[in-house]
Fold this protein.
Amino acid sequence: MIQLIEEAASRAGVMLTASMAEETAAFCSYVKEANEKINLTSITEDEAMASLHLEDSWHAVRHIPLHARLIDIGTGAGFPGMALALVRPDLELVLLDATRKKVEFLTESIGKLGLAHVRAVWGRAEELARDPRYRDRFDLAIARAVTALPELAELSLPFVRKGGLFIAMKGSDSEAEQASGAISKLKGQLEDVVTYGLSGLDHPRSLVLVRKLDKTPRAYPRRMAAIRKSPLT
Ligand code: SAH
């Protein structure tokens, strides 16, 4: 596994120390073990884990400023959040998920690895985004595979401080066009769409970078039912 991890890091352009590679391998083994009891992820084979989970997450590294405070919305088994935490000790990270068992798994893993700069939080983004301890507090929000971009932007942008960045990890269709109305209502501005390839995957992936220009209006995020029923356009 260590070799697969090192290759994934090098493809994503990430520098790994030997201890980072070992901790990453340990985390992957925790995911596999826990996955036998709780449904964390469908990707558990070593090579697929290295490229589809680790390498994919690590492609975001170059867009994350030094010492940033970051929240991963809907982190699941810890992707991209844990993968980022393992290679960026300078960051301060919150891994948010609505599923209690996933958060318990992450809290236990963080404890076993002795990571002091990362914390897993159980909650719903649309509720936590209204809590003053979380709203407008992050330099960066990131999310992969949670929901369509207009909804995801509504769930994520409120967490970001003015001037900060929201990164949506998407597939070959970045969805940026359909989300442009939503992004501007939330006081964001599309900054860039960066595409990249992953080993073993035949379609491109994309990172949608959204800059937060001003505070998100207090009406957002709405309740989940309203977000689903009438996505921002
Ligand atoms: N980001 C991970 C997991 C994607 S699955 C990955 O790419 O592998 C989507 C995850 O988002 C699930 O774990 C689910 O519990 C969580 N989720 C969905 N809606 C949410 C919400 N409103 N607030 C917080 N977490 C949410």
